[in-house]
Amino acid sequence: MNKPSQAKVLLSRVARRKVKTNQRLLEVARQLFSEKGIYWAKVEDITEAADLGKGTFYKYFDSKETIIRVLLEEGLGELLLRTEQAVKDASSDAKVLAAVIGARVDFFLAYPDYLFIFHQIRGLMQLQVDAAKGLREVYDNHLRRLAQLIRPAMGSGGVADVRDLASAIAAYTSGLLTYHVLFEGHEAVKRRRDYFVRVLERSLRSLLKTGNGSRNLA
Amino acid sequence: MNKPSQAKVLLSRVARRKVKTNQRLLEVARQLFSEKGIYWAKVEDITEAADLGKGTFYKYFDSKETIIRVLLEEGLGELLLRTEQAVKDASSDAKVLAAVIGARVDFFLAYPDYLFIFHQIRGLMQLQVDAAKGLREVYDNHLRRLAQLIRPAMGSGGVADVRDLASAIAAYTSGLLTYHVLFEGHEAVKRRRDYFVRVLERSLRSLLKTGNGSRNLA
Amino acid sequence: MNKPSQAKVLLSRVARRKVKTNQRLLEVARQLFSEKGIYWAKVEDITEAADLGKGTFYKYFDSKETIIRVLLEEGLGELLLRTEQAVKDASSDAKVLAAVIGARVDFFLAYPDYLFIFHQIRGLMQLQVDAAKGLREVYDNHLRRLAQLIRPAMGSGGVADVRDLASAIAAYTSGLLTYHVLFEGHEAVKRRRDYFVRVLERSLRSLLKTGNGSRNLA
Amino acid sequence: MNKPSQAKVLLSRVARRKVKTNQRLLEVARQLFSEKGIYWAKVEDITEAADLGKGTFYKYFDSKETIIRVLLEEGLGELLLRTEQAVKDASSDAKVLAAVIGARVDFFLAYPDYLFIFHQIRGLMQLQVDAAKGLREVYDNHLRRLAQLIRPAMGSGGVADVRDLASAIAAYTSGLLTYHVLFEGHEAVKRRRDYFVRVLERSLRSLLKTGNGSRNLA
DNA sequence: TATGAATGAGTGTTCATTCAT
DNA sequence: AATGAATGAACACTCATTCAT
After folding, report:
1. Interchain CB distance below 8 Å, C179 and D188
2. pTM as predicted
3. Which nucleotide minimizes the distance between its C1' and the CA of A54?
4. Of the candidate ranges A172-181, C95-104, C196-205, D208-217, the one whose mean pLDDT is the lowest
5. Which fold would CATH assign to domain A64-216?
6. Backbone angles phi and psi of C126, in degrees to 5
7. What is the CATH number that goes with domain B1-61?
8. What's the DSSP call for residue C187?
9. C185 C-beta neighbours (distance < 10 Å), count
10. Cβ-proximal residues to D51 (8 Å cutoff; 6+ apart), any chain
């Protein structure tokens, strides 16, 4: 009765350590990718900043590409979580869009590194390059889930596909914020948070009304 | 009377050939940078696609970085040219903004490759990387000129600096189009050209009215 | 009591290996530079001869230029060490010059590769080429130290500057030996070691007496 | 009677022009090789300095290696010519050595570029590199002829082979001058021309007396 | 004949990844 | 598990040489 419990405690201590190392690598990578760019940030830069041996990196991630994908997954995961909560909390269908946008804006204001990383990854995804394959899948999955989330609240708007609205929400929000954070700084944007939410909602509603007969390229 | 003319023809034939090769390299680079990304498109990819020897590239451009900058310069140059014409053609100050936006939208619809290249370059510019230095200079110069162009037509709006409006015009336009061309395709966006001009004008005017007390980071 | 010692042994094994690899690279480079010339000996030739991967070279030396400089520094360092010892051991001021020359001759007979490498580097140093910059600094530093070493023993000879004598010692010794080792072979020169010391001393003393009103170009 | 003469005149004009271009290339190459070094001076540097097209170089010389060899041949040819004259002018056998040395010193003072070029070429010749083959042959030929020239004047000295004396004359002279021109400047050495001749004669006579049982490596 | 645009083998260097310790 | 020394494929770039004009 003691042994197993001891083993469990020991294991969980090791396990906790592993989780911590994993997170440290991800955090450091996020920051470096944002500062220096995905290609210019070297694996060794990451392990050095995380105060780990270079080999350790490969104990946690199969490759540099993998950590990029994991970072994308984590970011989009957290983003979805917040979006889900926002949808739940919305008092009416009419307020869902604003709530969703607000959640996403808040996410990027909480993790501005992700703005620049997502900018780079969006650039990557559209390239005819192997590195892009896995990323596109992750991103598409996020859009799919986002679409499911907002579908109930959307009437039969002009947009043929809620999926298109989802991708527009994603693109507009991070596009707009990337630009403004870059030029006005994180703090200034934070202060005008509500303004940006309003602008985005208006733009997206306008998109909704117009309809666009788009074919989704994804 | 024949000799000199012949010589001239001969000379201009060689000269024309050089100009053509230069253009071919730029065109091919533009396409490959757009398709595969600036990082993944190798110099040899470019020369191969242009059906030239690898060394030839370096007769025309000092380095890979140089061709990226030249491409940026050329693109922004053409963009400015069209913008200038649009401002001249505008029948009133009130129509200048729409004209400018229209010119820029038309540019990107004419050279969609530039959308993706600019997206990448904008990503590059903000990085703390040597490669970014020269590019930022070129881009800033463009924004400065754009600001000069629209200044006369702008009253004293809420935006402290016309320069901020200029950078917003640049960022909003290519940001919006990048996204829509990617997801709806070039043709679909072309058809809705006027819609996008209207959307952009409205967003930018809204920005103008709001004012933002931004500090320009550039 | 065992663990730390084990760890220490383990660490020193790796450390020793590193030192060994470093030395192997330097040795191989010294030999190849001497045999094939600094220009014709390629980095890959060196790593191949050292039975290492090409990338390993750059873990130990920043560039090919660096290993040349390190080789020069090491050679001149050892040369200075032997010269210092010789000066200390000299029983009188009058014997210092002969002792210094003897030490330098012995050095080159012990490491004949350095004769040819120094010949090349001296050629390099005088060129108006970037590669020469760092080397000249190292060499000048050596001459400066050599001058300090012999100054106490030198009266006020006809040479305005002991520094000039130092550079003459350096140049005459390796110049003469380079030629004779090349034409008579290492062994033959070794046998006549004392003869060369005498010849060099006489030539240098003659230089001293003459005086030359030279301006030192270094 | 007219035609051939015309043809001859025309031909000789062209021929003269060719000779001139040839000489210009050689002169420019000599200077650049001396200034920047044989490897660092590019073929294009030479043609550019000579104000010729790059292709023209290859109309006159098969390769870069060829021009180096021609330069060596020309230099050694002129050197031999002057040496021959000096031997002829010598009033007695005893004065031949001094005359030969004087002629060679004067040559290098007239064409100091050759000092640095010969330094480099001597370095090259000893390398186990293909580029060295042809050069060694040219140099050896010069030494052979130099030996023939001085043989009559040499009694049966201690040197087993006059050939060894010849190579010593060649090496000592340019070795000593290279060093002194480099450190004291061309002008200073010119002023002390007679001193250097005396020093060299003494050193070489000392070599003669000693004998060395050397095996010639060439 | 003179040219210089074009070439591509060859070089130094980088960096993601592996693996012995 | 953690490490970091070692690796080598891959890349940007150079330059002697060729050849069409």
Report:
1. no
2. 0.88
3. F4
4. D208-217
5. Tetracycline Repressor; domain 2 (1.10.357)
6. -85, -5
7. 1.10.10.60
8. H
9. 16
10. none
